[in-house]
Amino acid sequence: MENLLRPVIVVGGSVVLTVLIGWATDRLLSKADRRHTETPLWGLLRRGRVPYQLVLCAAMLRGSYDAARLLEDHRTAIGRALTLVLIGAAAWLVIRITAAVVETTYSRYARVHRDPARIRRVRTQVSLIMRVVAAVVGVMAVAAMLLTFPAMRAAGASLLASAGILGIVAGVAAQSTLSNLFAGLQIAFGDMVRIGDTVVVDGEWGTVEEITLTFLTVRTWDERRITMPVSYFTSKPFENWSRGTPQMTGIVFFHVDHTAPVEAMREKLRDILRECPAWDGRACGLDVTDTTPNTMQVRALATAKDADDIWTVRVTVREQMVRWLAREHPYALPRVNTADATPPPGGRLPSPSSSSSRDGAAAPDGAAHRA
User: Fold this and answer.
1) Which residues touch 215 (CB under 8 Å, ≥6 apart)?
2) Are 248 and 307 a contacting pair, CB within 8 Å?
3) How many CB atoms sit inside 10 A of residue 290's CB?
4) H/E run at residue 253
5) Using an 8 Å Cβ cutoff, are 181 and 214 in contact?
6) Measured between alpha carbons, how far apart are the two ends of the chain, in Å?
7) How high is the pLDDT of residue 269?
8) CA dist 202 to 88, 106, 289, Å?
């Protein structure tokens, strides 16, 4: 009877204590979250209740397993399994606690500072820091798990002796991965590009959606995702429209006839922009920038607060200006000129008949000369 009750009491007591302590801790964190609404720390710490309970249960079972006298023939294997679970759960808990502290710090920073560029910069750094912490803790946890096996401890000396050679081989084999890793750190702390920035890469316009230690994802305007190695942004030029201030100047070109009413087009441009909510009112203008034998090029200029609004301004100006020209000044649209040439002042253009007579009079002489 004692052989049956002892393991039930030990195992059942450990599980019950784990549930009770976990429940009490969660209740305390929930009360603290409701009381301190100015910080999300306590609510974020509640996300770690599962690894917290695993750590408690594994620690209790590992400490009381010898007293349980359960499956004594497999005591070593079960004890090592509990140790592995304890190490893994502890690593998981450390990552959750670190994430809660880092996210709380970021939220406080975002509330205090109103500059969107600085907030995006800190957000990018925070996300990359969390990935580095998770990678380091994971590697340490795996190393600790391996060291629980006696064979791995015995091989430690030989591993350390060959660490230099293995490091050189691994560095050569993972050269591109390491370059992307350092490029990711350079992007995070060099403030080259941030999450939420509007960039133009290889002719594609989009918004930076995700930055990791090895790759970067750009969401284009048509909702495609372009995934690129972060080393691209440290080795090739690219456009970052969110660098500095997000304000932008947009340009729309029109090809019109030489008789187009330029002054009336200036007034119409102002009217269009006054009714366009995306225009920020900083500047606008319309000028003739080039001419060709058949048309002249007119440039309309307007400003907006960011890349999305400047796109709206440009398409609005282009659409409404062309519609207005077609309705009010159809002669100003480009056309093929088939009218007679205008004679120079004080003179007349030669008529086709006179030109033909001159050509005919000259023909016999030419023919005689050829003969």
Assistant:
1) 180, 227, 228, 229, 230
2) yes
3) 11
4) strand 248-256
5) yes
6) 139
7) 93
8) 43, 32, 28
pLDDT at 174: 46
Question: Based on the number of CB atoms within 10 Å of its own CB, is 371 exposed (0-12), middle (13-18) or buried (19 or more)?
Answer: exposed
Question: What value, to the nearest 5°, has the Cα angle with vertex 214 and ends 218 and 203?
Answer: 30
Residue 188 dihedral angles phi and psi, to the nearest 5°: -65, -45
Candidates 25, 23, 42, 46; CA nearest to 33 is: 42
H helix or E strand, kind and range, residue 51: helix 49-68
The one-letter amino acid at 267? E
Rounded CA-CA distance 43/102 in Å is 13
pLDDT value of residue 33: 78
pLDDT given at position 155: 53
Helix axes 49-68, 75-112, angle to 10 degrees: 160
pLDDT in tens, 128-164: 778 878 888 888 888 788 777 776 665 544 544 454 5
Q: Residue 130: CB partners within 8 Å, gap ≥ 6?
A: 98, 99, 102
Q: Name the CA radius of gyration of the chain, rounded.
A: 38
Helix (H, G, I), strand (E, B) or coil at 250: strand
Reference 191, options 240, 262, 138, 256; nearest CA is 240
More reliable by pLDDT, 13 or 227: 227
Report d(CA 338, CA 326) in Å as an integer. 20
Contact 79, 148 (CB under 8 A): no
Q: Tell which wins on pLDDT, 115 or 368.
A: 115
